[in-house]
Write a structure and sequence with these properties.
By secondary structure, the protein is mostly helical. It contains eight helices and two strands. The chain has a single domain, classed as Arc Repressor Mutant, subunit A (Orthogonal Bundle). The radius of gyration is 18 Å and the shape is elongated. The chain starts with 5 loop residues before the first helix and ends with a helix. 17% of the residues are buried.
């Protein structure tokens, strides 16, 4: 089953939370963890990783915390997930080795490649700002995009 890790999920939650703050606002790991019932030690590690990756700036001191280092419109879900979890791999066909025991006879490698690219494209086109917009209108748009795959993807299914 293809699903996000808890770390990636928590990272996206934190970035969305920070995107919804006023432009000069910041929040501590504790504030964010408490808001979403996320284990604070785990969230602190995720936020540090995101800061090292250039997504967040940390501010020290009594009023310190984290804030976005870039505009929410310039941060894609894909790059956040990759920064936290590494590459997204749908099947072993798409690893650096690219081979499995069925490679000689596989009849789904190309269709799976198209699905893989479609998923990566969708995640790359969703920004933290998109995730912060009105949920109903954004989810309807994304649902329509997913429900109406391109002709090339329809051929694969």
């Amino acid at each position: 089953m293809l699903k996000l890790t808890k770390k990636a999920d928590y990272g996206l939650i934190a970035l969305k939370h920070l995107a919804n703050l006023p432009p000069t606002g910041s929040a501590s790991a504790k504030d964010i963890a408490d808001s979403y019932s996320i284990p604070q030690p785990l969230l602190a590690k995720i936020l540090q990783k995101l800061a090292k990756g250039g997504f967040l700036q940390s501010e020290h001191g009594t009023n310190g915390g984290y804030r976005l280092a870039r505009q929410a419109t310039k941060i894609s879900a894909l790059e956040v997930i990759r920064a936290i979890d590494g590459p997204i791999i749908l099947t072993s066909c798409f690893t650096e080795h690219g081979m499995c025991g069925q490679s000689d006879r596989c009849n789904v490698r190309e269709p799976l490649r198209k699905i893989h690219e479609g998923i990566l494209g969708l995640l790359n086109n969703i920004t933290i700002a998109d995730m912060s917009e009105d949920e109903d209108s954004k989810l309807y748009h994304l649902g329509a995009t997913i429900a109406q795959p391109s002709a090339s993807l329809q051929e694969c299914v």
